Amino acid sequence: MAVLNSSVFTVNEFFLEVHQGLKHTWPEFQVMTLRHGKEEYMAEIVLNDVVDRLIANAFSLHASEYIGFESSFKVELENLLEKLFKIKFLLDDAQKRQSCDKSVRNWLKDLRDVAYDADNVLDEFSYESFWQEVHTQNLMVDQVRSFSFCNPDKVKTIKQLLDKIDKIVHDVVGFGLRTELVNSNPKISLDMNIDPLLDDSEVVGREYDVKKMVNILISSSNQQVISVLPIVGMAGLGKTTLAKLVYNNELIKEHFDVLAWVNVGKHFSVEGILREILKSLEEDLSVSIYDKIHQICAEKLGAINYLLILDNVQYEDLEKWGSLKGYLSKYSSSIGNNIVVTTRSDNVAEIMKTHSKHQLEKLSKDDCWSIFKKRSFTNGRISLDLDLEVIGREIAKRCGGVPLAARVVGGTMCFKFDKIKWLEIQSNKIWDFLDEDNSDIFPVLKLCFDHLPTPSLKRCFAYCAIFPKDYDMRKDEIIQYWMAEGLLESGKEANMVMEDIGNKYFTILLATSFFQNAKTDAYGNIVTCKMHDLVHDFALSISKSETLILEGDSVDNVSSIQPLFVRFDDKTTLGASFSGDGFIKLRTLILKHFNFGIMLSNFKYLRVLKLLCCGISDAIEQLIYLRLLHISAIGELPKSITKLYNLQTLRIDGHGHFEESLLEDLSNLIKLRHIYIDYFTRCHQSPKNIGRLTCLQTLPIFVVGLNEGYFIKELGPLKNLRGEINIDNLEKVKDEEEAKSAKLKEKEIFKLELFWQNYLYIEDYNYDKDEKVLEGLQPHPNLKSLRIKDYFGKKFPSWVGLSSLYHNLIQIYLNGCALCEEVPTLGQLPCLRVLEMGGMRRVKSIGSEFYSYSDGSYRNITTKLFPALRILKLDWMETLEEWNDAKELTSASEVLVFPCLEDLTIEDCPKLRYLLDSLHTCVSLQKLVVENCPDLSSLPGVPSFIRHLEILKCGFKELPSGLKFCTSLQFLKIKDCLNLKSIPESLHTCVSLQKLIVANCTNLRYLPGVPSIIRHLEIIECGIDELPSGLQFGSCLQYLKIEYCTNLKSIPDLGELFHSLINLKLSNSPNQRLKLSRREGRLKTLVIGGFIEELDAFPILRYPFIRYLNASLKKLRLHGSPTLNSLPNEIQLFTALEELRIQNFNGMEALPDWLSYLSSLQKLSLYYCKKLMYLPIHDCCNLKHLRIDDCRNLEKRCAEGSGAEWFQIAHIPKIKINGKYIEGKDSDDSDNFDSFDDSDYEEFNVLDYSEDDYLQEYSILENIQLDDNWCQGIWNQQEWSIGSRLFIVQVSKNHNGGNLKLVPMKLFHRNLRKATVLIRLLALLMIDDDSAKSTTPPRELKFRNKSATTHQQSRWCAPFLWKLNGSVLEWLSKLYLEA
Predict the structure, then answer these.
(1) Residue 339 domain-assigned?
(2) Residue 127: which domain range?
(3) Cis preceding-peptide flag for 1008 (omega within 30 of 0)
(4) How far apart are CA 1244 and CA 1144, in angstroms?
(5) How many CA atoms lie within 13 A of 1373 on its CB side?
(6) pTM score, two decimals?
(7) In a domain, 1269, yes or no
(8) pLDDT tens readout for residues 1101-1112
(9) Beta carbons within 8 Å of 589's beta carbon, 6+ residues apart
(10) Of 8, 639, 712, 1253, which is the most buried if we count CB atoms within 10 A?
(11) Is the pLDDT of residue 722 over 50?
């Protein structure tokens, strides 16, 4: 071949010229016929990019530096290239003729098969060249020299391949194909101004539909428990879009307590829908027990009004719908719950509806044009002149009123820059294939697909059929799949890395609406998207000869085909054919719950392998072609992974274990570009010699070590590193020069986390070193997020906050920078949105340095400081005394500070006395939280637009005077403000207030009236003697909690309140007698009792009120007293009761026999019933949970098999006694026995006054029993006040040091509330000898570090202890010395 006689450079230039010259309109998928009346059209087989890739790989092998070719092999490679070029030049004409010439189409199908074989052969040769490169790097020179690439078998292999290609070339001779050289890869500029984030749910022509549906859903005439409103219409008409508009409507959000969204699809699974409901509500779905799912659903959906969207329902099954509706009705018997169903099927609508269906009509021509125009002329990429408008309106008209068609066609037209191209689309014959009613828009999707800019982009789109419908496709995941399949190779000649090509393809598919519903992260980066169901169907149809999706079927049913891309769901049965020839050429495999073992050898041509909950063995080393490996690993991972030299992406989730040798050999994966391994973060470890992976772009964490191969300089050679990285153990970096060796300034990292492990002072540690190291770690100007943790320099380097350099910076987190004496200058960062500073223990004042540099340079630049900041948090700044305004720093008449601030939190600043006076001028402030600032006696004022205000543990004597103007305030919480004596009378003017919590304000004597709109009210441990006036008229109140208000004289008639109440909690106040309106209520949860001496103190359980509760009450908790010896008999009438909790009935010996009448009872909890011995609950057939705590007589009596009461409880599935599950019973610790919300589990409510009992039962931490001689182990005991809580401190000595316990002191005087929260065991103190000998309190508490375990304990304990003040540290040191 003459061309190969030139230099490699010349050959490559010629190849690139050829490579840019081809043109086609359909990818390499087999023929698909779409029928419309008498017309039909076919999808062509197009192989341009495949042949281009083969030529590029052959040239790469020819030019490889690591392979010594013998002349025979080199000649065969040149022959292969010559034949590939011949095919390439004929290919374009063949593809044009295939639709009318069956012989040509068959030839293309044969060529496709041979092309895949050639791809595998060349890939194998490439793998062996990588093997040679790795072993050369590992200095295994002798082994490398003994390796002969050009052995006879390899020459034979390539000759066999040449024979197949010769036949292909010979067969084409008689077809009379013309040689053509056209551009097969039109260049796509990376700087094209494309907006991929156009709103997919824009409101065009649906205003009336939204208004009508909202009115139906919130109508007062909607009096059914569950009402169902179907939206019916053809595919692509916008049913889901309409449902989203309704779902996000403000009136809907105000009317319903809970909103949930489920995409149902074609499989109507009741359990699956319930799980998706919980997922929509952001519930933890780690539990798999069906009963648990029901329980959580009942908790979330019970006693409230909810709106549930069931999107894309296809299954026409009355029985399954009846089952789901039955469960939902059981969860909540309240009227006014609604379900909106979107469906294409009239039958589904008829089965499910209670309201008349909402038939969605097509859009008008003008509305279609509006959507089309927005997509086509976005960002001014194309000028809208009269000619294009006329053509565009005609194209929009042909979209037939279908919004999806208008969006996709409009997105396609934004890439057509001249009138001729627009006319080609307008006159395309494909419009003739549309039905009269446009019910099938596949022809429109094909038209737009044909006009995607490049062949490889079309193949990328079609490949996405491998993902399930409604799947949140992660952008990085999709691009890595495309890359692994070789679909992004074709743009490399333009010096574009594959990820950049993939990013551009992704953006184009979003802009054309083939992808939609894009979501972004906090930095504005697109992270996920979805495909419309109809688009997914189209993608699957054009790839169906190569893509196989099996959902619940046996693989034996498909043995007759040879798919390339396969996804199985976790219900698929894998038959014998799975390991046979039917899958031998498989390139992508996605599989759940299957143990491959040695079967992996049957899939040796895989490029992509994703295994979820599957085991793998050493046989994985046979997958030498593998580019992407994603496994959820369980157990030990095989070291043979390190032999997959073609690997580009390695993602290992879960708890896979890495041997040390495996970590050392990961650097052999020299083509690796992306690493995601949970183990590195979990075990605080990085691979050795990672600097050898010069292609690496993604590395989430790097842990600096002290040995060769783990130094920070390993990051230096990683020139392509980008995205996010956490660099840990920076205390091990010696100096600034070593820090600079990481070359962070050259790497396009947008999220950077820099962590030191300076939890404690370390002897001989050079704290000045941290400043120099941080200076050397200056990042790239594209930085968007910066986190610095446990940095021990006294100041920050000059680059932090440099607005001229870091104009893209969005987030800054500065945590545990304990020695910093001033905050950095950040006020001029133009894009900073989030700022958190915590643990700066030496900062005494925030002043001018915070806003601008000392030269006042900002005065001539801007009058806005922190112009974009939305969230600001100051936390744990122990010495901070004042926070000054910026206006003192300039002579300008006005400087606007924090103009966009929405959320301000100030916590744990015990010496803070002053806040900035201009706080009330923060016009955007929505949320303000001030906590644990005891020296802060007042706020300068709050903005009138504030919505959320919390004042906790502060020295406030009064609330801000401007509160009366806060007409937008919705949430107000005041807690532990012991100096607070009053709340302004104007509280009732806060007309938007929905939730008010006032707790532990013991000097507060009076609460003013509350607005009638209030929905949630808690008054706990306050000195008030009456409830707020007008409370009984609060017809919206759903939650009322009154506890420990010992001065409260009475509770008035709740009047209208009872009708709306859902949760009522009245306990531990002296006078519990109340009156209720005699009307039906909605009460679901009732907590009542405490400090009561007789059963009459439960008036709510007496007639006539009980008849208004028996059908609605689901949960009941009774607080008794030492004198009560039985339960109120009226409880037996609560036929709907599901949970019953009884505590502090110390005189009761037996539960009543009538308890078995409660047929709905599922949970029974018994606490602190000292004399209780008998449990006649054998006939409680539905009881599933029994919990017993601190009922001293029951532990032995309920012993499994031998206890006297065992026969009464043996039928209960889950039994828990004193914190432990009984042997042989279900030990699922995730089970929630007590679902009373707001942390209602309180161990000490009403106590006996016997000191012996107190010491025996109530000095327990986490159910750890003290032995009988507990007092002998206490060598020091002292009362210790933390805030307003009083504790007894017990420190017992052991061989390791001191065992510190903080036990709440029980205060029985009624004017004081008991300590509420048990403090857990803080730490196993390991105080070192230097601390013990010190006569003055050490600055920090030091710990022995004799073992890893001890070190971990000290690291866990130290930050907790830092929060304690100096006197506490002094006291702890004193205790140790006294020992």
Answers:
(1) yes
(2) 2-175
(3) no
(4) 9
(5) 21
(6) 0.81
(7) yes
(8) 665 566 667 677
(9) 566, 567, 603, 606, 608, 609, 610
(10) 712
(11) yes
